[in-house]
Amino acid sequence: MTRRTAPFRLSQGGRLIDRAQPRRFRFDGRGMDGFAGDTLASALLANGQLLMGRSFKYHRPRGPLASGVEEPNALLGVGEGARFEPNQRATTTPLVDGMVTVSQNAWGSLNRDWGVINDRLWRYFPAGFYYKTFIHPRAAWKRVFEPVIRRAAGLGRAPKLPDADRYEQAYAFAEVVVVGGGIAGLAAAHEAARTGGRVILLEQQPHWGGRSPVDHPDGTDLIEALLAELRALPNVTLRRNTMATGLYDHGYLLAREHLADHEPHAGIPRQRLWRIRAGQVVNAAGALERPLAFAGNDVPGVMLASAVRDYIADYGVAPGRRIAVVTNNDDAYRTALAALDAGLEVPVVIDARPAADGPLPRLLRDRGVRIAEGKGIASVQGKRGVEGLTLCAHQGAGEPLETIACDVIAMSGGWSPVVHLWSHCGGKLQWHEDQALFAPDPARPPVGADGQPNVRSAGAAEGDLRVAGLTDAGPEAPILPVWVMPENATPKARFKMWLDYQNDVKVSDVQLAALEGYASVEHAKRYTTLGMATDQGKISNINGLAILSSTLDQPIAATGTTTFRPPYTPLTLGTIAGEARGEVFQPLRRTPIHDWHEAHGAHWEPVGLWRRAYCYPRAGESHRDAVDREILAVRGGVGTLDASTLGKILVKGPDAGRFLDMIYTGMMSTLPVGKCRYGLMCSENGFLVDDGVAVRLSEDTWLCHTTTGGADRIHGHMEDWLQCEWWDWKVYTANITEQFAQVAVAGPKARMVLEKLGGMDLSAEALPFMSFAEGHLAGVPARIYRISFSGELSFEIAVPANRGLEIWEKLHEAGAEFGITPYGTEAMHVMRAEKGFIMIGDETDGTVIPQDLGMNWAISTKKHDYIGKRAQERRFMADPDRWRLVGLESLDGRVLPDGALAVAEGVNANGQRNTQGRVTSTYWSPTLKAPIAMGLVRHGPERMGEVLEFPVQKDTFRARIVDPVFHDKEGAAANV
Questions:
Q1: pTM, entire model
Q2: Cα 633 → chain centroid
């Protein structure tokens, strides 16, 4: 064995660093130096810091395994105070001058971690140990086990201060989006650009070319030539530092762009989230190298072969001085050659294949390097760093043959295409036995809205690992699929063969899961936590499922893969939220008439995301006085209500009528053009979710009004059914709520005010109740509906939003002689309750059906189905004991408390009094000069005249069950 030597900076090389620009940073309190272009990982290695973290379960010392987004070990806390962020990959985080970093998951310190005692107890922590232990004694779970487990869970520490950085979101559209800026991606973008359509090329790194500049330097000229041509094309957009994180249906791609990561003084947003619509997506994201499973393959200094040569070529950093290579393919030989070129030693290349005779092995033999064919690694010497390895035969029992001194082991188990984007939107994979990888199945691609394939793969992401075919490099010898080294390792050795480095999942864990019946790869994943770490199994999954297949004695293709889910790499919550934080977390919505209301003393209330006028108190008036005045003004003259916030959803198409027949409980397809009809909407569980007036504008077009808070929800409800259930119906919907301002003019003098404005015949004969007319009112284009929520003669006037204030002011000018009065939402609520009209959210609570409200008249008997119909036929929905709507008359002149429960005889199992109803709406009625209320009561309509008691704290309210319509039951006021 050799004494462990520290990594160090080479005197030459490092194509990505600028040695003329030094950078100073701190790691666990120690000052360190680096250069511009370094990542945190390369800078730490250059300072001799190989140990960068501790593993999750066993707290084993871990160093960097990779050099890119697949890194599972080197996760650091970066920044200070409000700019602190945990779990940042050191391999992809650029070094910034003055950066402060800390290690994670150490109980004590990184060098002295008391949690390492778990490593000594490895026999007691097999797969699923948390399901099998801590069960007895039961009393100890809450007091002892759960607190300890909760404290141990998670990686890093959550920030305690609000994020001080800014984030933004942007939108883009392109005929073709290419993901990956290697040779394959550049070529695909060049080909797509020639069609003349818009092309966007995304590259996650700050530099172009992918792995080619390191692995195939002779391809550099080709990269520069392709880039030059693309930059000269006006229809091509190139974006570096932009990671495609998820691909969804219909070419909807999310990508995160780094703008000023960890640079607090940059003065620009830290990150930008792109929402891109693409006609076609080309996945050219390359491939990821796999590790090999052998005892001790997680000791710091055991790294992927590609990562070792990345650190040497890109950053001028040597992970060690004596680099042993272990592989099952030709590619790893490039690492040995790179190490020799950098002046480092390569004592041996261990190749699991019985014969290695390709161009790369021959180059290495010519330089005097020993190649141990048909061999593997039995064990690794060293704990905090590699000190040597024990060589053994790959096949057989794995008996030790000799010990070889080294301080780095560069391993390569082959390459896996990055198929995540292909899989995110439904693309299927197929197993290629000859290359030992899953690749996109061209016969089962993702498809777009038109049913045609809209995603394709290119280069290594397609399974073509010969990207060098575009350069002068020749073909490489085939891979020998190797998942465990040696092939017949002892049980003790398998306990030290790591698959998922972050979650400490071993070969023995997967084998145990299979033996215990977890034959499904998805079940095995959850039982062992394989692939559930922050790297999402990029390194571990293929090896894990291969071992699962071997244990189950079935082909890998039969086992399949786990589900690839977005995001491809973690996104910060700040990037997801964008500017939606603080006061603009949910931006307040204001109607076109908002400023007028504010100028006239409106008291505001939130309704959904809108601000609506609750009332307009005058000097010396209480809110109740103002509400009473507004109601009496409407009942006795005329009033105006800003109803612009009501949802307005356009539904159009040949199948719009039958679609609305399913959405509403009543018939809408028979509604004549020019007429309005009130309708109810239910969920698939039968519960009432919204109501409103539907208007038939033309033969194939309806306008559906919803509640203020229901516009977005109901539009989403419609689209959900159209896209998922009735996808072949020819129906188009659009939420046009903000396109129109809408004003209710209500009261016996409403028609007089409108007639003064002129332009339309609004007589009872020309515009009867529940109809509408289009024309110009006071020179403003308008659509006028004869509908009423107050019970009075009422017109609702819809005009273009930019003319809403204009029509409002003209109405008040024309109505001045009639005492026109603006009224707010509370007056509207009281008047509708006086008329016995329901309010969604008051009379409904998510458990109420139309039949509970006595609204059977709104359910059509002419059609066989609507959303929720069958649910309403279930036994408990048709139960005669369901609470139903009634009016409640206070017996002592006091307003009943909202939500108060009516008690019944007896007590329940908890010793509480039984209940038989509740108050849903309760107000003081200035019209009746008495309190009124509505409620849901068991057998309510059959119990008219009975008295109920509503105990509230130390008081008791009493009310008589009455008809829910308190005012103008015949509806004469609305039909003048």
A1: 0.78
A2: 50
